[in-house]
Structures are given as C-alpha cells and as structure tokens.
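Summary: Need help interpreting a holo structure output

Steps to reproduce:
1. Submit the protein chain below together with the SMILES for adenosine-5'-diphosphate.
2. Request a joint structure prediction with the ligand placed.
3. Inspect the structure token block that comes back.

Expected: a single structure record containing both the chain and the bound molecule.
Actual: see attached output.

Input attached:
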Amino acid sequence: MASKSRWATDDDPETEAILAQRKREKDEKRRAKAEKQRQLDEQQQARAQQESDPHPKKRRRLSNDHEQDPSITTTPTNNTSTTTHESTILPFPTQEWGPCRNVSNFERLNHIEEGSYGFVSRAKDITTGEIVALKKLKMDNSPDGFPVTGLREIQTLLEARHQNIIDLREVVMGDKLDEVYLVMPFLEHDLKTLLDDMSEPFLPSETKTILHQILSGLDFLHDQWIMHRDLKTSNLLLNNRGEVKIADFGMARYYGDPPPKLTQLVVTLWYRAPELLLGAEKYATEIDMWSIGCIFGELLTKEPLLQGKNEVEQVSKIFALTGPPTPQTWPDFRSLPNAKSLRLPPSSSASAGNPPLLPRGKFPFLTNAGLHMLSSLLALNPGARLSTKECLAHRYFREDPRPKPKEMFPTFPSKAGMEKRRRRETPEAPKRGQEAPKLDFASVFGGQGGGEAGEQGAGFTLRLG
Ligand SMILES: Nc1ncnc2c1ncn2[C@@H]1O[C@H](COP(=O)(O)OP(=O)(O)O)[C@@H](O)[C@H]1O
Ligand SMILES: [Mg+2]
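--- attached output ---
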C-alpha cells in the first residue's frame, strides 16, 4: 500500500494545520525583521539630528561637548578645533570633571571695574564669539591654598541656577595657579552705576519690576539654604532686556537650622543689619532682608539710604530712621553683646505699629502698601522682618501701578560695555579673616552729650570714638 504523501493532500486537516503554523511563523519572522530595521533607522536618524542640532533639548552633560552646551562648567584644555562629526562614533559619556580651559581662549575687551575692584573685565569667547564677563578671583589672604571665599563663590553659584541669579558658565585658569577666573554672561549695568548716572529715579512700576526680580532670586537662594551676605546695588546686575540678576557670591555661604555661629563682619556697612552691628553671633536670612530694605530705599531715592562712616555712626543713622528699639519692637535686643553699653533715651516715644512705620516724609511718592513693606523690611527686630515669600505676596506688588513688563523696560547706555570707569567711593564688603571690632555704643543716645566729634541723629547725639 502506497504510503500517503505528506504533501499529497491539501485537504488533510493535520497538514493544513502544519502549513498554517509555518505561514504564521514566517509572517512573525518578517514582522520582527521589519521592526528591527525600523529601530535601526530611527537610531540613525536620531544620531544624525544630534550631530546637526547645536542645542539638543535634553541630554547628559558630556565633557567633550562643551561647545554646544553653555551650562557646562569645566571643559578640556584644547577647545579650538571645530567638530566635524564626519564619523558616526557614539559620544563617550565621561564624568564632568576635566581640566579647565585657559583664559587665552578669551579676548579681553575692557575692564569693567577699575580701582578698588579692578578684577572684572568684559571679554569675547574666541571660539563662540560670545561676550562674557571675566571675574578674576582674589587670592589674597590665602597664601597656602585656594581662598575659601572663592570656593564658596563657585560652590554657591553652581547650586544657584535661577533666572535672577548670575549664571556661572565656566571656570578658567591663567598661566599661574593663582589665576582663576569665573566666566559669566555679560550684563550691561549694575544698579549702583546706573543709579549714579540717572537724573531721575526709576518709575514706581520699574522699581517694582526690579525689586520683584531681586526677591525672586533671593527667595530661591534662601530655599537652597544659602545666605548672600553682601546684597547691595553694585552686586545687582541689569541687562538691556530688563532682567535683573544677583551677582557677587564672594560672601555667600550655606547656613543651617538652628543657625551656626558665624562671623558678624559680613555685609557692606551701609547695608548691614542692626543685629550684626550689635554683635549677634547667630543670624540667618533676615540679614539679607535688611539689605533688601536698604536697596528698596535706594531705588526710591537714588541715594544709599544709610551712609554711616563707621559702625557706631551706622547704628546711629539706623535708629534715626527707624526710631530707637523698645522692649516692644525688639524684645531680645538687650541680650546682644554690643547692646549692653547702649543707653536708651529716657522716653522713647513708641510710634504706632510694630514694626513702626518709617517717616512718610522721607518717601513722599511711595504708596501706603509700599511704605508698609519697606518698614517691615527695615524692622529692627529680625524676627519681625518680612521674608522673601512674604514680600513676593505683598499687596505692594499687586496694587497699581503694577510691575512694568520686562519687555517694556527702558534701555540705558552701558558704561561697562564701552569704557573704563571709576566708581564713586563707596564702602566695600568686609575682608574675610578680619576681627569684628569691639564697639562702644555707650554714647549712641547722647548720654554724655555731643562734643566736637559728635554726629547729630534724630533726637539724639552720637559721639564718635
Ligand atoms: N556678569 C557681569 N556683567 C557685567 N558686569 C559685571 C558682571 N559681574 C560683575 N560685574 C561688574 O563688576 C563689578 C564687581 O563685580 P563683583 O562680582 O561684585 O566683584 P567684587 O567681589 O570685586 O565686588 C560689579 O559691581 C559690576 O559692575
Ligand atoms: Mg561686588
């Protein structure tokens, strides 16, 4: 009996099943192959796009792609060769660390500050053509190593990525080990130089735009547990697009809760909070808020608000503006080291409110809401001072006139961009490592009368040491 061919009959159900199974397997294989090809095509397309797009949206930072990524901070030395991308070699993800570029990659255009500063210049990145500011770190006071202020400046700036904080692009080196430069975008103005040159103060709507941006940047800093400790108009930069950025992190540092014991010798005298002047060893973000109050006042009047010649006079000027502290307005002030020698006037007429409102006559064009915010920033008692969040939510920013949109902000000719300049003599931040002076405030309230070296305050006389 002839055996039945396996292929002989199409109608054999078993054979049919086998054939169908084979067909399914074949189709499956074909589909898998097509899918693999599609994936390969996709990968190739993505690679080609990455090579042609200089600003990919999201990717890991790579040490060898610094030309495209401006946010990178450390880059290899030899950066002058242009990338051709003719090969399809995949980028090799190395760690971010690498040798810093040399400052010779930048063409120095002009000094921005001469005189007491003298370390910031406008420069052009030869590779990209971008105009930047180069800040040479001060290496004095650190004969045996990298200065801690420089380290803090780099460390805090790297943490503080925010649209209202200056962007540290890169750190570059000179030929010697002590030549370290910070590369930052160039901004046309600092608020101090600009205010000095303006014939009229900013409009109320412009003041609000500026102040709101400073507060936004500072709010971010405080959220990151960073105190700036040297807020003043010369450390606030403004570009011709109405954008404000907080700069100069030379005094900045991290703090904790409870606040650690810190040096009191921080913040430029005119912007220094009363608790620091009175010797508080523990302080926190409230000291920055006091400086903001001083800056607010300066934006309104175009003149620094409290221009003391020394610490004693500074305290005297503060009390002349705010009224002297009372047990109601500042319960803890007696416990501050330098307050022990302070004699309060016999009848301190406590003005209404806590903190009391500043004299309206000094800020005639400020609204009631504005005067309230200013008075609460310049509250003697740090515990009563407004925080960044309280300021940002303050009705001053919501009432008319509203903050002027940045796009509508006026532009000004940039001194920093064109010529060397010498700033009017203003005090500097204290030098690190200096001892806070022992201060005698015994005569702030005129206990022993004025005398030749006396200084008239509001309702009291100050004798200078
Ligand atoms: N990125 C910048 N763009 C333009 N000018 C700048 C920039 N950074 C600093 N400056 C100018 O240089 C001055 C000094 O810079 P700053 O960082 O405050 O250094 P210092 O520690 O010497 O005070 C500023 O007041 C400002 O005028
Ligand atoms: Mg400065």
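--- end attachment ---

Reviewer comment: The radius of gyration is 32 Å. The mean pLDDT is 81.
Status: needs-info
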